[in-house]
Structure formats: C-alpha cells, structure tokens
Specification:
Blueprint: H1 6-17, H2 28-35, E1 37-43, H3 57-66, E2 71-73, E3 80-82, E4 85-90, E5 96-101, H4 115-125, H5 144-148, E6 160-164, E7 167-171, H6 179-182, H7 193-198, E8 221-227, E9 231-236, E10 248-253, H8 257-265, H9 277-285, E11 291-304, H10 314-322, H11 326-334, E12 339-340, H12 362-371, E13 383-388, H13 391-408, E14 412-417, H14 419-427, E15 433-438, H15 446-450, H16 466-477, H17 481-498, E16 501-512, E17 517-518, E18 534-535
Parallel strand pairs: 1-10, 13-14, 13-15
Antiparallel strand pairs: 2-3, 4-5, 5-7, 6-7, 8-9, 9-10, 11-15, 11-16, 12-16, 17-18
Length: 537
C-alpha cells in the first residue's frame, strides 16, 4: 500500500486531530495538554476492540483505557495491586482463587458491576461461538477446556462462580504458574451483557456494540469517538471509582513510522509507537530526552506453515533458520535496542537463562537444503514471505529475502497486508512463512512456549508434538522454579529439533515520549495503568 506524500499526509493528520487552526501557532500537543487530552499512536488501526476476540498488542493500550481488570501490575511489574478487585485470597493448594470486588464499582452507564457480570462475561469468552483465539488462557480453570471445545455445553460445570454480589471465585484443576499474571490482560475483561444483547446478542461475535454511545465499559475511560482509519478517542468515565489525571486519550492510527515521527516533531503527538531505524542514531547521538528505550519481554520470530511444501521438511525449515544473521538484523536493520534471539525465550534477569541456542551456519544450511533435494537452491519452489504493513516490517522482510538469496540461492517473494487482513490470513493458515511476534501478558516463559502447543489457537504453524505438550503441561503446574526451568530446557530442545518457528530478536521498546508526559510504564511487560499517566507542567 502506498503512503501519501509527506506534506499531504501531515496535513491530513493535522485535520483529523482537530486541534490546529489557521490562525494559531500553538502546537496541537500544547492545546491538547491544556485540555488534559493525550495524543498517542499505538500503531495500526485496531483489528477489533472486543477483548474476548482480540489478539493484538496495539489494541491492548486502548482496551486498558476502556476496561479495568481484576488486578493490575505494580509500577515495576513484579507484583500486583488491586483494580476491579479490592482484595483476593488463594487456597493453600493453589487451586481456588477468591476475588472480593469493589462494592462501589460501576459500569460507565451507572449500573453496578457484580460478580455475576464477571462470571457471565468469562463464560462468553470461552463460548465456542465467540471463537476466542486466546480462549486457551482459561484452560487451567476446571471444566473450561471441555466447554470451549464443545465437549460440554453446561456452563455450570466451569469453575467460574459468582459466590455472591461481590465475590468471584475461580477453581483450577491444578496450580498454574501464570494464572495471576494473565488476569491483568484483556481476555479477562468483563462485558456489559444488557447493552450487547441489545446490539445483536451477547454470544454473537458480530454484535455491533463497539461504538460510541453503545459501548458500556468498567474502566477509567469511555469511548467517545471512533473514526475508522484515523483515531479512537476516549473520555473520562464519570462513574469510575477514582479520579484520572487525563481527561481523555486520542489513539491515532499510523502504519508508517516516518510519518508518526514527523507528527511528533511537528507537535501533533505526545507519544509514538516506535522510532524509524533511519532516525534512531540521530536521536541517540543528540541524547534527545524524548527517546525512551527499555527491554520488553517478548520475541520477534517467523511462523512457518509446516503443513505445506517445502516447509513440511524440517531440513528446509532449519536451513532457513540457520542463515539469518541476527546481529545484523537487530543492529543494522531494526536498530531498536533488540537483542539477537537464538532461542524462542530470552533470559529473564535473576530467573531463567536458556541453555540451548541455535547456532548460525551457512555451510550447514546449504547441506541441509541439498539433503532435502535442492542443491544450491536448484529446483526450489516459489516461496512467499507475509508481513503486515509497516516500514520496519518491510525492512526486515527485505533483509530476510536478501539473506536467503545470498546463502541458499532461493527466491522469496514478499507480500504485505493491512493488520486485520494479515491476522486473518495467518489464522486461516494461508501463508508459507510469515512475520510474527509475541509480547506476553506474563513474563513467565510458559506463555511463549504455549504458542506452539497443540491446544493453542494461536499456533499458526500446523506443527504439534505430543511430548512438547506433555512437558509444557507439567511445567505449567510445577511451582518449583528450578524444576520448572529444567522442563523449559527440554522444550527448547524440541523446538530446535523441529524448528516450527524461527526466533531472531528479543524485543526492546523504543518510543518518543514528550517530556510533559509522566507515568509511562517503562517496565518489562509495559504494564500500562492509565490512571498513573498524566502531564507535568
């Protein structure tokens, strides 16, 4: 997709921000700050804002403004603080979680938020008709797997219970190391049943409830405007249980980092979603205080469709994996502060350190390709690499294309798609090899491994392995870190052997943040709590 010429694009942005007048020299960000309105881009146009159907990272920032989870991360993302729940208890055996909801909590229309609202919402999430790609997050709950897969149609068998008006209980089949971590994420958000029923049906995935004036939410903000392809704007929820410093947030959609960076420099954004690689060095050399960079748990990788030739042959998959120059990719192409990834899960300071790592070798890769029947690339069929539209993704795609051509003498064509279409293409397994990345809700390694499990709807490779699933299941319920990490090492062995995914970078988040903004979470899960964000004068 072609982008507009820069001047025209900037004029369009200025127009839809609605904050520039011909007679004013005041920057839009200054006008917005006076009103308490934050101007931010989190990337592309949202694919959906239904928390039970979404899988994207850009959307999470918007949804966390509209909804409040049971618990939130603390500022360092090393512990939890109360949110919709005022307190919680865990049984000695680690299987029963009891949440005591805030008695003063209300929906944005003034209705009280009850435990029954939460129970019905979470049952909706795992109802088969909703087809929630992250529904497997609920699998540790008693009866949840059987219900979401259609083996049972009796919702009363699921261990999510409204004990009374303000007490919500979860019963797990066994302890789970990620359960509390994941409760901070959007799949667990509550929905207002009556308003969704009126908009098309509570269990109807196509219900038209994600509109200003229709959407009812429980978070610090409510949706006030959604201009498709331009922005989503939220304003204060008058019924929220605490004050917010911001009066509103405008989430501006940008597919082009150069355009968003120019918008930042021209005073049209307070926060960007990233920095173009071509501008990174200049910002660093000038020690520009707006440049913020910090490690983020997560991995950039490639999804390989193992069900289609030529990638149904593990030798081909490994050949493609061994020829990626990861140092070049992160230091020359990306230049975001990422670290090269030779395993799916990176080191977690003071906790986990992967011991098995992929070793790049062009010589071995060429031999593997020859053994697969393609000496020096001869006879290798057409291969296509799929990525979602973004300059940085295009640069990565072109670098991969060149690396594979140079090392293996194979031709790889490139195809880009708009974010929503891209996600659907991968879900339908209509790709050969595609861009992928995962920013976990939990820093626990199990979440990244789970993407490759046979039970995960986010597994978009077609690969599965019974031993992998068995070891991962054991690791999830092992509370002793030393024993759990030993199981993770076995998972690394299996992934390196079969190579269904190709990791190449561990994320670092790099943004431009105006010095007037305070409270942005520069922690390892970027756990945003919008009530902490505001302006300083």
């Amino acid at each position: 997709m072609r982008s507009c010429p820069s001047l025209i694009r900037l004029l369009i942005v200025a127009t839809f921000l609605g904050l520039v007048t011909a007679c004013s020299r005041v920057a839009p960000i200054d006008e917005a700050r006076k009103k308490g309105l934050l101007l931010i881009t989190v990337g592309s146009e949202p694919s959906t804002l239904d928390p039970h159907r979404c899988t994207g990272s850009p959307e999470s920032f918007i949804m966390l403004a509209l909804w409040e989870p049971l618990i939130n991360w603390d500022e360092s993302a090393t512990g939890y603080v109360p949110a919709a729940a005022a307190s919680w208890d865990i049984s000695p055996d680690g299987r029963i979680y009891t949440f005591h909801l805030r008695p003063d909590a209300k929906w944005s229309n003034g209705d009280p938020v009850t435990a029954l609202d939460w129970q019905q919402s979470l049952i909706r999430w795992i109802t088969p008709s909703i087809a929630a790609e992250l529904g497997n997050f609920a699998d540790p709950i008693l009866g949840a797997y059987a219900f979401r897969t259609g083996e049972s149609t009796d919702a009363t068998t699921v261990g999510i219970r409204a004990i009374d008006t303000h007490i919500l209980e979860f019963e797990l089949t066994e302890p789970d190391v990620m359960f509390l971590d994941r409760l901070t994420g959007y799949p667990w958000f509550p929905l207002h049943r009556a308003s969704i029923e009126a908009a098309g049906g509570f269990h109807n995935p196509m219900a038209d409830f994600l509109r200003p004036g229709v959407l009812v939410s429980n978070g610090p903000f409510t949706m006030t405007e959604w201009k498709y392809g331009q922005y989503v704007e939220v304003g204060r929820n008058p019924h929220y249980h605490r004050e917010t410093e911001l009066s509103g947030i405008r989430f501006v959609a940008f597919d082009n980092m150069d355009t968003s960076e120019r918008a930042f420099r021209s005073g049209q954004l307070h926060i960007t979603d990233g920095v173009p690689a071509s501008k990174m060095e200049a910002y660093r050399e000038s020690q520009n205080p707006a440049l913020i960079s910090y490690p983020r748990v997560g991995t950039r990788y490639l999804n390989i469709n193992t069900t289609r030739a030529p990638f149904d042959d593990v030798r081909v998959r490994r050949a493609f994996a061994l020829t990626i120059n990861r140092e070049q990719m992160v230091n020359i192409v990306l230049r975001t502060g990422d670290q090269p990834a030779y395993s799916l899960v990176g080191p977690i300071k003071g906790k986990y350190e992967p011991t098995l790592k992929l070793e790049e070798s062009i010589e071995e890769a060429r031999q593997l390709l020859a053994d697969a029947g393609y000496p020096n690339g001869t006879g290798f069929p057409p291969v296509e690499y799929l990525y979602n539209t973004l300059d940085r993704n295009r640069q990565v795609a072109e670098a991969l294309q060149q690396m594979w051509k140079s090392a293996l003498n194979v031709e790889v064509s490139l195809r880009n798609e708009e974010w929503k279409v891209f996600l659907e293409t991968r879900r339908q397994m209509e790709h050969q090899i595609s861009r992928a990345g995962w920013l976990p809700f939990s820093p626990e390694p199990a979440e990244l491994y789970e993407l490759n499990s046979g039970w995960s709807d986010s597994n978009e490779t077609g690969w599965s392995d019974p031993e992998f699933d068995r070891v991962l299941h054991t690791a999830r319920r092992e509370m002793d870190p030393t024993k759990r990490y030993a199981l993770y090492h076995r998972l690394d062995e299996i992934l390196l052997r079969d190579q269904p995914v190709i990791p190449f970078g561990f994320y670092a988040r790099t943004r431009l943040i105006h010095p007037s903004v305070k409270g942005w979470p520069a922690n390892h899960v970027e756990g945003i709590v919008w009530t902490r964000v505001g302006f300083q004068w």
